[in-house]
Predict the structure.
Amino acid sequence: MKYQKMNLAEFEEYDKVFDFIAIQRPEWEKLVTDNSIKIKTNQHKIQFDFVEQILKKFNLRISDVSYTDYYGIILGIEKL
């Protein structure tokens, strides 16, 4: 799969998502890797009802999910 580089405007579109997250879950962070946007939870368990709320509100989908002992659950997100 080829990755297209995101331009600045595309990255800035995600600022609204992370502004919302900062209010609801201030410990969650934005992570940019391999030209993709991810939510770094720093938790080992999360409630997917909150994640679903984010996805619906901002018209997103989960592109990938990973887990590390240090970072917790990491959710890749992208616009539909």
